[in-house]
Each structure stands twice: as C-alpha cells, then as structure tokens.
Design brief:
Elements (H helix, E strand, L loop, with lengths): L3 E3 L2 E3 L3 E3 L8 H8 L5 E8 H5 L3 H6 L10 E5 L3 H15 L3 E6 L4 H4 L11 H15 L4 E6 L9 H11 L3 E5 L13 H10 L5 E4 L5 H11 L3 E4 L9 H9 L10 H19 L1 H15 L7 H7 L5 H8 L53
Parallel strand pairs: 3-4, 3-10, 4-5, 5-6, 6-7, 7-8, 8-9, 9-10
Antiparallel strand pairs: 1-2
Length: 372
C-alpha cells in the first residue's frame, strides 16, 4: 500500500495515533514510536489557552527532539482565535501538522459548542477550518469528525465537503455519533460514505480497531486511506508493531508475555517520570497499569497497589511479584480499554440546534481548558 500523504508528510504505514486526553503525551508517543512508524499526535489543546499562554497548554504542546513529525490537535469555536493559535504553533513552536478536533463528545467540550457539537453550525465550521488552513501556510491541516451530534443530526458528509473545499489535507471519521460516546459498534459504513463523497483528499477511519486485522478489514470494507488508532493501543503499544507488519504483508508476531509487558510498563513509567518528575509521572502511570494487565490473572490486590503506587521503586517491587511466563490472554485482545460509556444525550449550548446557520462563535465557548 502506498504511503498516506498529508501535504509533504508521508505516513507509512498509514497509521495515526489518535489524540487522547491524559494519554498521548510526549512519553506515550515516544514509547509507541519504538514499535512502528506512523503519525503520533499530541493531546488536544484549546486555541484560546494557547493564545493566552496557559502554562499547562504550552507544556502539552511541547515535543521531543527525537520526534520526526510535530503533530498537535487543536480545538476552538472562534475563527480569529483559531487563526492566531495556528500561526503561533507554526512560527513559534514549529509544528509540522495540525489536526482540528470536531469529534470530541465530552460534555465539558460540547456544552461550549466545541468538539462534536460545532459542525452543526456549518457557516461557523467553515470559517474556523478556513482560518486554520489560511494561517498554517504550507503546514498540513486535517480535520477529525464524528457522524454527528446524534442520528437526527448527522453532519459528517456536509462537514467533510466543506473541509475539502477550504483546503484541508485529510479527514478522519470516528464512525460514531457524539450521543453514542464509545458505546455500541462503530459504523464503518459511514466511513465508506464519506470516502465516496470526498474524493480529492484522503479519508481515514477510526473506531473499533483492536487488532491489526481490524485495520486491514476497515480498509477493505470502506476504501479509506488509513486508520486512526485510539483505545486499541491503551496498554498495548506493540499494536503499532502489529500494524506495521500487517500493512507490509508480514505475519503479525505473537503477543508479548507478561514479563515483556512489565518491561514495557517500567519503560513507560520511566519516560513519564523523565517528562513530568517522579511524583506526577507515577501518578499519571497509574491508570495505564490496569490497561496493561487487562485479562491477566494477577489478582485484585496487585491491581489496587499499582493504582496507588507513588514511586518507581514501588512499581518495580509490585511488578516483580508477577509471573513473567504468563502468555497474553487471547480473549484480552478485544477487551475494551479506556472509555466505554454511552449512549448519553449530548450537552449543547441553549438553542444550539435551532441556529445552525448562525456564524457567530458561542459566547464563552473558548475556555482555558486543554486535554478534553
């Protein structure tokens, strides 16, 4: 398969790490890159927070010297703020790729009219995407969408065509509505619909990619140009190795043993500590421990202790108690990690669905909150 092209950036294999709040920081991106090539995107940051110089947001927009492509995801409800933020990312931070988030279903985001709520306001959506593309210059801008707010308000085809028209480099569709959140099955048929409707730029598929075979199946079923992997790689950074093998026609390797996985866990925790200091680094690692051990018969006591660990020494001591010879449980391959909630009514600004042609940014919509 030919490499995915985003402007001048070649993504080979055509695999993208989905931005995930509290997960896709510099440490996790570095760990995943050791297993395979692809495009590794930062956590979502808000344009307003970046423009205002919010310290947390600037930290989230930091990249390692070893990152071959500096890729960041940005969220905004205001064209002017979006344009200013993009110019800052390009000229001051030196990013190579910008992804615009119009897919986040989190209540704190959609109730501001942002994320998955925004494409309903098509004129505002066009203005925001156009502002980003115009400010980015030669840096490619991509757009991530959901099917719509709910089944009664599907927007992905119209939004995809608008984004194509104003010059984005590619589209990603998470094939669920915002109302679904992460429940039920991703509707891959919607990815095929978008691919048929948008013909001049790549379309990437996202949703229910748990194994490398799923990625090949998605491409075969939808004709999409690449895949975006989210929850499937939580606790399984080696999924990017499997994807590289599958896309290159090689047999997928045997999943790692528990001993190999505990080695990954220590590496991940150490990378977090290097980036954030031991106290915050170990606390950030706690949630990952459960994902790494999904399906393994290690006992609830160890799991609780790992979720309360505060030092690298504690992590080492606890992981040393596990049987390194245990094989990866086959049934764990498709066990959901991360978000599983939904469906749930979408929180929207008052009257949001009654003013779809209003180009005015929602008042108070650009908040100083990143990582949504």
């Amino acid at each position: 398969m030919t490499a995915l092209k985003l402007g001048t950036i070649a993504v080979d294999p055509p695999v993208v790490l989905a931005p995930m709040a509290g997960v896709t920081n510099i440490a996790f991106r570095r760990l995943c890159r050791t297993y395979g090539a692809g495009l590794y995107v930062s956590e979502m940051i808000t344009a307003r927070a970046l423009v205002e110089g919010n310290a947390k947001t600037l930290g989230m927009a930091a990249f390692g010297d070893d990152e071959p492509v500096r890729s960041v995801q940005l969220c905004s409800v205001d064209p002017e703020v979006m344009g200013t933020a993009v110019r800052r990312l390009v000229t001051e931070i030196g990013v190579d790729h910008i992804d615009l988030n119009f897919g986040c279903p989190a209540a704190k985001v959609t109730r501001q009219g942002a994320g998955a709520a925004l494409p309903v306001h098509r004129a505002l959506f066009r203005s925001i995407v156009g502002a980003a593309v115009g400010a980015a210059g030669t840096v490619p801008v991509t757009v991530k969408l959901r099917i719509g707010v709910d089944d009664a308000h599907a927007t992905f085809i119209e939004s995809g065509r608008i984004a194509e028209d104003v010059g984005v480099a590619a589209l990603t569709l998470h094939a669920r509505t915002a109302e679904q959140l992460y429940s039920g099955s991703a509707r891959w048929a919607a990815i095929a619909e978008l691919k048929a409707a948008v013909t001049s730029i790549p379309v990437l598929g996202n949703g229910d990619l748990w194994e490398a075979a799923d990625a090949l199946a998605m491409l075969a079923a939808t004709g999409c140009d690449g895949v975006v992997v989210g929850r499937g790689c939580l606790g399984r950074p080696w999924l990017f190795r499997d994807l590289a093998d599958a896309f290159n026609g090689r047999p997928v390797q045997t999943p790692p043993s528990l001993g190999e996985i505990t080695g990954m866990m220590i590496t991940h925790a150490e990378l977090l500590c290097q980036a954030f200091g031991q106290d915050l680094g170990v606390r950030q690692f706690r949630k990952h421990s459960g994902w790494y051990l999904t399906g393994f018969p290690v006992g609830s006591a160890i799991r609780r202790s790992l979720a309360q660990a505060s030092t690298l020494a504690e992590l080492h001591a606890l992981l040393d108690q596990l049987d390194p010879t245990l094989s990866f449980p086959r049934e764990a391959m498709r066990m959901a990690r991360g978000h599983t909630n939904g469906p749930r009514p979408v929180h929207l600004p008052s009257g949001w669905l009654d003013t779809v042609d209003d180009p005015t940014p929602p008042e108070g919509g650009d908040v100083l909150v990143s990582g949504g």
